[in-house]
Design a protein that fits this description.
homodimer; mainly alpha; 2 domains; two-stranded antiparallel sheet
């Protein structure tokens, strides 16, 4: 939530024009008073956005490359790059929703020092540029979910096998139930934040798992196939749960009828989009085949993702649910010899880091400083979430039934990393206002730790021997 | 310029909460009153942005493909697609700077009808989402100029030959002098808008000219080479003139010292960037060669363009001058076997239409309705600009001196289309507030007409016979 009036109320502390005079004027003269107030200049807002994007991209590349060089998933580096430039450290990227004002923002200080930003309008300029960066980050997560949808093949999803389905179901149900119940019963956290945190425990990052499996040559092993199938189903379960939980947070009310209604509407939306999509997909292909100008395939695809995101948001589910559904619908599109996901990739390359870095920038690590006694409960909660996150997914490995000689521990460990999907949960929760800062940071710590421990654990439980499988493809340029 | 206080003043006319009560409260209770006021919801701003982007992309593709099918440059179709969805017709995309309020915006009406937007906050929601779309369009023109810079090769620019230089100089000087003097002396337009309109006459669209030359197989003819060289030099002259003129518009003051200072600083910025860039270019390549994660080349390149755009803007020139300089610096980069302009192309494909469609959407055609007597002068001005635009560039053809048998008329005609560069001038002029709506629309009409007439005229003056040259490449997907 953004309240633009806060900006006005703050004007009097930062600007030469007295806020008291502004507001105590007779109502009939408001229009004239407004004319005299200094105006927010578009060029300053643009300057703030340019500096913010520059800081975000530098943080994402430095963090991502460094973590990749260390052998960790780059997404964690982008997240921690965000932490470095955000509220916890450098204060380059801070947001009014987190309580920051213009004087806290290093970007605004740079604008004042180098571009001559009038301090009287620093606060509204800061708020508008922050909102632009926020919306760009939200477009980033919409593109991320669209890309995940494009990479999830519906046909494969349907043949993924009963074992993957069972692994996914246990891997969603156990952490969700244990997490939510534990937070409510042990830590006396109210229902909505507890459900949100429980829901964040359900995700599995298919990207990180499949990359590690490919690196150790286990992608096409029986265990690898079960993990990948379960991770895809997890995404679908997870996004339905997220839509339901976010909607609960909006109404603030957890009654059974509402929960059932939301689960049904989210599922109907997703399934309906896929069924209608079969018809749409062929019309889309036929249309795009006729086009000849620049962006002839990617613009129709992106437009479809945007309008589906809007519909998802308008029916009080989530924009990202719509984008994910759009990706599922279009996933088999191959137009003019180009796979759609290859075309969306360069857009995701520049948009998705905006999301990861922004999540990091909003993460206030100071709420977990153990030197402050009030923070210790947050640390205990974070530890609890991490244990549930790991144990719950390992338990899921035993969902792979039957007498086959399967490495069930490896299957469970493969489901541990939360990665980008867990961050989406944290961001939606934080945005909804349902999560306390401590719980928000606890979820992000859980995501970071599960994502860090999974790759080395997977190597250990699989025995780390090399197989003859091909290595993962080169990253895109 | 955006004044967020206007939104507050308008609240009382659109919302259930009385603005009178809100503003007549005692000053000491402002903080509490603010708490009670309805808040702008982030999800509604995002919804507005999603709908706006959808409308913009649909307009750009429908317009662009239709015009391409008719044999005209797609950019004109995108522009006219914008006119259709903008202030002149459908009112989907309207902007507060143009005097629109939330009640004028069809996107806001859709948000109210489908997503439950509270009418009390429709006005601030409209203003924030409009600002986000504005900034996205400005990022679009920054990417456009970065791409034009990447496509302009400095080495070729230096060897382009004295004939191209002379053609470019005449093609810049004649329309600029004739246009500015004519507007001031005949139409009594003040100096700053007259200089702006004169400057808009200097541009040549290398994209449209080179496409038509390729279609008629004349790209490698002597005339074709002179035209292309001159068009590239035109871009450099044009962007320096634009930076100078926009800066004049900001100070509102045309004195000789200031003009000389601005010309020198814009030229020093551009030349300095290029010289420093030679060193930077090799460090950039060496750095990018080391990177392995997604977006490893495109993100450093984009970051460089963004920070150069910021510097251009901060030193009171233009953000697009910085982006153009960044493109010139990086133009020879070939990293990991990929040409940089191929990597930037997919980003330009989605960002640049935002600019063209937004320019169209802001173009209020009603100011040229000949049925309104007050508009007739605007129409006369538009006709004057069009004549100067065509005659001035044809005159430039005779800058190709010497005894060679050259088709000098063809050279002049090849310089006629203003295309995207002319639109950049119109947008910067409109943004600066220097242009009256009528003059703004007159410039856009000039751009449209010169761009329309050039392709058929070129075919006629070249004799339209087919040559053995290869056809232009396929458009990107």
């Amino acid at each position: 939530m953004v309240n633009w009036m806060d900006g006005l109320a703050l004007l009097d502390s930062t600007g030469p024009i007295s806020g008291v005079n502004l507001f105590s004027s007779a109502v009939s003269t408001i229009a004239t008073v407004v004319e005299e107030a200094p105006e927010v200049e578009n060029v300053m807002v643009l300057g703030g956005v340019l500096l913010s994007l520059f800081a975000i991209y530098v943080a994402s590349k430095v963090g991502g490359e460094f973590f990749n060089w260390l052998g960790f998933p780059p997404v964690l580096g982008e997240l921690l790059g965000g932490v470095v430039i955000g509220i916890s450290a450098l204060h380059l990227i801070v947001f009014p929703e987190e309580g920051a004002i213009a004087a806290d923002s290093v970007v605004m200080k740079i604008l004042q020092a180098t571009a001559g930003l009038d301090p009287a309008v620093a606060q509204p300029t800061f708020e508008i540029q922050s909102e632009v960066v926020n919306i760009l980050a939200e477009l980033g997560v919409i593109i991320l979910l669209f890309e995940i949808g494009l990479e999830s093949n519906i046909r494969e999803l349907l043949d993924v096998g009963i074992q993957s389905l069972l692994v996914a179901t246990i891997g969603v149900a156990v952490p969700f139930a244990a997490g939510t119940a534990g937070l409510m019963l042990i830590f006396h956290i109210p229902a909505i934040p507890a459900i949100f945190a429980g829901a964040a425990l359900t995700a599995t990052s298919i990207g990180i798992t499949s990359r590690v499996l490919a690196e150790i040559g286990r992608l096409s092993s029986k265990e690898g196939q079960i993990i990948l199938g379960a991770a895809v189903i997890d995404d679908v379960f997870g996004i339905i749960i997220l839509a339901v939980v976010a909607s609960l947070a909006k109404t603030g009310d957890v009654d059974v009828v509402n929960v059932i209604y939301l689960i049904v509407s989210a599922s109907v939306f997703l399934v309906g989009a896929i069924l209608l999509g079969r018809f749409f997909n062929s019309s889309f292909n036929a249309l795009a085949e006729q086009f000849n100008t620049r962006g002839k395939v990617v613009i129709p695809a992106l437009s479809f993702a945007l309008i589906m995101a809007y519909i998802g948001s308008a029916i009080h589910l989530e924009a990202i649910l719509g984008a994910f559904a759009a990706g599922l619908v279009l996933d088999e599109a191959t137009i003019q010899d180009k796979k759609l996901n290859e075309l969306v990739q360069p857009i995701a390359d520049i948009m998705v880091p905006l999301f990861f870095v922004t999540v990091g920038a909003k993460t206030d690590l100071s709420v977990l400083n153990p030197a402050v006694p009030a923070n210790r409960e947050g640390l205990v909660i974070a530890s609890f979430l991490i244990v549930v996150a790991i144990v719950g997914k390992i338990a899921a490995g035993w969902g792979a039934f039957g007498n086959m000689p399967l490495n069930r521990l490896a299957i469970g460990v493969g489901m541990i990393p939360r990665g980008e999907v867990g961050l989406v949960f944290a961001a939606v929760g934080s945005e909804s206002g349902a999560l306390s800062p401590a719980l928000d940071v606890a979820i992000i710590l859980m995501v970071i730790l599960t994502t860090f421990v999974a790759p080395p654990m997977l190597r250990v439980v699989f025995g780390d021997e090399e197989t003859g499988e091909p290595k993962p493809e080169e990253a895109s340029v």
